[in-house]
Amino acid sequence: MTEKQLKILNRNVMIELIGDEPEMIRQFEIDFLKQAKVSLRNIVTMYNDSRILEIKEEAHFLKTSAKAVGAEQTSYLLQALEQSGLEQDKAKCKDLILRVKEALQRVHGVIVNDKTISPSMP
After folding, report:
1. How many Å apart are CA 100 and CA 4, to the nearest integer?
2. Domains in the chain, start-ordered, CATH in brackets?
């Protein structure tokens, strides 16, 4: 599957994991966004400090959470970032970091624009 064929946020993933619990799913999504903000900041710092190999670990950590909440495009890009970190390809890492940031912004948009549950984003 290509990145474009993947969903920004596939809520069926969480429904399969925990059941049809909209409020609980919403909380997991919000927690994911908070975690993603910290992880992305860490990845950028590692990149700026030329600690490219370390990006692999942080990308892997965030990828696991992205998969769990159904952030398919983000997970796909994090997999590629993880590989680029392993290969220590700084130029590719830079491109993927920017693409991960954009993907996370799309996930954020889907979550905050969901009118089925009132947003409680900080």
Report:
1. 13
2. 7-110 (1.20.120.160)
